[in-house]
Design goal:
CATH architecture: Sandwich
Number of domains: 1
Structural class: mainly beta
Distance between the termini: 32 Å
Number of helices: 2
Shape: globular
CATH superfamily: HesB-like domain
Order of helices and strands: EHEEEEHEEEE
Length: 125
């Protein structure tokens, strides 16, 4: 199993760290951008209703930030988070893990009070 270093984020406008990506996650997103010929795109990280526990994580490549998005940068990769998702992602860390059981992005979220066994769904207090 590969371990990832935590990469320091830019600060949120109010001075709080809102979300971080590990070096491994940044590298994997850049690899996906190149493989899909989507140079100049960033990663949108969001929270939506649904899933076993009520909320679920989502990620997508996006051409540009919306006007009201928070924008973070990790080693040249822009990360966009919409205002509705910000409170649910405060302090969260996105990693990319590759184990014998499979590979994928994993979110460690201190805001989650419970999670589903699938790892993609969570509940906050």
């Amino acid at each position: 199993m590969r371990t990832s270093k935590r990469r320091a984020p830019l600060k949120h406008k109010k001075g709080r760290d809102m979300i971080t990506l590990t070096d491994t996650a940044v590298s994997k997103v850049k690899e996906l951008i190149e493989a899909q010929s989507r140079e100049g795109h960033g990663l949108r990280v969001y929270v939506a209703g649904g899933g076993c526990s009520g909320l679920r994580y989502g990620m997508a490549l996006d051409e540009a930030a919306a006007e009201d998005d928070e924008v973070y940068e990790f080693d040249g990769l822009q990360v966009f988070v919409d205002p509705a998702s910000l409170p649910h992602l405060s302090g969260a860390q996105v990693d990319y893990v590759d184990t014998m059981m499979g590979a994928g992005f994993k979110v460690e979220n201190p805001q989650a009070v419970s999670t589903c066994g699938c790892g993609h769904s969570f509940k906050t207090s």
